[in-house]
Amino acid sequence: MNNCINYSLFYFEIKAKREGDNPAYNWITIGLENINKAVINLLPVYGIIENERCEVFKLEDFCWNDEDIFGCGLVYPPTDKSPKKLPYIFFTQNGNQIGKAVLLKDNYDTYEQVIWLRCCSVEANFGNNLETKPFCYDITKHFVIKEFYEDSDVD
């Protein structure tokens, strides 16, 4: 992460393949769930990002194509930063960041990856071997995001 000394980045990707003959049944979500079961996720079929309070943020000019690669990243700032910075979650599609980041204000100690799907299959990449299977998104070029969704962005 450029310009991000002492920040921690946790990231994973999925390649989403639609299954079946009726695209109306294809549905997928990718995101992170905290210990309280609150989820922040991307719902490609609707072109939205949803935060842990179920507030919806519409992605402009978004289109989900078969075999797109979606990613989800969680960034923790250094604990000794002053003023205190908060962690955030961001999403990618085919190697590019989409939308703004979601700032985590509460309960950000423990998160797990979540993927829900219907009439789809996924190939997941958790970064276990980046030499043989690199991410589509170049995590080495990730900068600290400064643009976050706000209450005024709720759709």
Automatic annotation (TrEMBL):
Cross-referenced InterPro entries: B30.2/SPRY_sf
Domain of life: Eukaryota
Provenance organism: Meloidogyne enterolobii (Root-knot nematode worm)
Protein name in the entry: Uncharacterized protein
